[in-house]
Amino acid sequence: MGDPKGFLTIKKKPAGNRPVYERKTDYSEVEQVLNSEDRQLQASRCMDCGIPFCHWGCPVDNLIPEWNDLLYKGDWRGASERLHHTNNFPEFTGRICPAPCEHSCVLNIDGEPVTIRENEAAIVEKAFAEGYIKPNPPKVRTGKKVAVIGSGPAGMAAADQLNRAGHTVTLFEKDRKAGGLLRYGIPDFKLNKQVIDRRLKILLAEGIEIKTETEIGRDISAVKLVEQFDALCLTIGAMQPRDLDIEGRELDGVHFAMDYLTQQNKVNDGAYVAYDNRITAENRHVLVIGGGDTGSDCVGTAIRQGAQSVTQIEILPKPPEQRSGDNPWPYYAKTLKTSTSHEEGCERRWGLSTLKFIGMQQRVTHAEVEEVAWEQVNGSYKMNAVPGTREKIDADLILLAMGFVHPVHEGLLTELGIALNSRKNIQVNPSMATNLEKVFAAGDAANGASLVVNAIASGRRVAKKIDEFLNSGKE
Q1: Strand partners of residue 210
Q2: Count of CB atoms within 10 A of residue 355's CB?
Q3: What is the C-alpha separation between 143 and 293, in angstroms, rounded?
Q4: Domains of the chain with CATH codes
Q5: CB-based contact 442:459 (threshold 8 Å)
Q6: Are 180 and 173 in contact (CB under 8 A)?
Q7: Distance between CA 99 and CA 441 in Å, rounded?
Q8: Cβ atoms 234, 149 nearer than 8 A
Q9: Which residues contact 475 (CB under 8 A, 6 or more apart)?
């Protein structure tokens, strides 16, 4: 390292966020940036720790100490090259990754980790600004054709890696534009969609064909696609949302979170949505059920739409402020997370179970909830209702943000007869192959709903397995 003791003299300095009063009136990205000099100083805090637990904590195996050192020395091009060596899209993870690397950073023992995620974003943005990132098509083509179905982070990463290997890749997307949940599920205030378009231009210039508004299993027969390509890669995500089978679920005003977020992202992109079909929080009391990132995204979106009030509830107990004894460093800290959306104005409650929705004239007006207590019994947790704690929460817009259970089975998967595992995800073997010859799967569709960085890592792995499969027939 250029300065193995930099962490002793340089204090952690996050870039910070735009003021609440300003950002909650628009959909521009919330996070600010540091100047280059300060960013290099922050990179100098990456100590010569001997064992890079940050690398251990990173799903894509980022070479964090190496590119932090190059950044500290001012070699932005070299830092970008090392960063892209393991991560196809650092501009995505640098914005929206929860940074397990920082949780594992040695300096996080004292709660002052290196600003790894921000350093990553700064490196790739400088690389784009300086023209270091340019199309680099493969010099030789193998003659093999691969179809990647689903253009989210897993599909984009798989397509990128397979194209680099010289295979001819076609990326299929059912929506109007490529990007999957990166584009339609993550709010613009966290990820500006021009960032996705910028990367897609690179992929197109490198020879990847992208076919949008094409749903396999409906617009094109999945069986025919298998016949036309040498390999198929299924990266369709886990888009079946977890539902609440309770009284009043059919009332107007109760929606899945992803329907809500997707619609707003499409409106931001210029799409027209008829008034009768518009899901809006304007002048409404909003209840978000689910305490994760998707729920937080609903909170921020509802605030920007002009909600009268926003409440977010979670059935699990409130996380601790500090690590508990069974959650030590360098593991990911299961502690209370306050997002930028929460800072903008939201009541948060934990340990609440939703019993039913109440309405008037087919429109939801309230949610009846009850406090629950959790106890550990024989190694597992049991939920018990707390007597006398039932109450009604005012809500004329309720958003279900309780996660996703598995990929959508109808259409593509049922037509092909893809085998599923016990969790109803696509079943794959250690080579990431399905039960069908030359059909592979990766990302959330095979692993269950997870992080963008995990999807990218999975896409890279499946590309390697497909490349090995395609090369196995060579003489």
Answers
A1: 171
A2: 17
A3: 42
A4: 6-129 (1.10.1060.10), 145-239+405-471 (3.50.50.60), 243-402 (3.50.50.60)
A5: yes
A6: yes
A7: 25
A8: yes
A9: none
Q: Is 377 helix (H, G, I), strand (E, B) or coil?
A: strand
Residue type (1 letter), 169 = V
Question: Cα–Cα distance between 319 and 335 in angstroms, integer?
Answer: 5
Give the span between the Cα atoms of 401 and 396, in whole angstroms.
16
Copy the structure tokens of residue 432.
Answer: 């990431």
Which amino acid is it at 165? Answer: A
State how far the Cα of 200 lies from the Cα of 210, in Å rounded to an integer. Answer: 9
pLDDT in tens, 384-433: 999 999 999 999 999 999 999 999 999 999 999 999 999 999 999 999 99
Does an H or E element contain 367, and which?
strand 363-377
Q: Which residue has the tokens 């999945």?
A: 222
- On whether the CB atoms of residues 471 and 151 are closer than 8 A, the answer is no
CA distances from 354 to 158, 288, 315, 370 (A): 40, 11, 8, 7
Report CA-CA distances (Å) from 195 to 83, 89, 125, 293. Answer: 17, 10, 10, 20
Q: How far apart are the first and last CA of the chain?
A: 46
The answer to whether residue 241 scores a pLDDT higher than 60 is: yes
Q: Which residues of 71-99 are buried (b: 16+ CB within 10 A; e: fewer)?
A: bbbeebbbbbbbbbebbbbbbbbbbbbeb
Backbone dihedral angles phi then psi of residue 404, each to the nearest 5 degrees: -125, 145
pLDDT tens per residue, range 37-92: 999 999 999 988 889 999 999 999 999 999 999 999 999 999 999 999 999 999 99
Angstrom CA distances, 239 to 145, 147, 149, 210, 298, stand at 27, 20, 14, 21, 17
How far apart are alpha carbons 208 and 203 in whole angstroms?
6
Q: Which two tokens stand for residue 460?
A: 């890279």
Q: Are 117 and 102 in contact (CB under 8 A)?
A: yes
How many Å apart are CA 169 and CA 163, to the nearest integer?
6
Structure tokens at 191: 């990820």
What gap in Å lies between CA 197 and CA 208, rounded to an integer?
Answer: 14
Angle at 113 between CA 111 and CA 119, to 5 degrees: 150
Distance between CA 440 and CA 438 in Å, rounded?
6
Angle at 403 between CA 400 and CA 407, to 5 degrees: 115
What is the value of pTM for the model shown?
0.96
Other residues' Cβ atoms within 10 Å of the Cβ of residue 101: 29
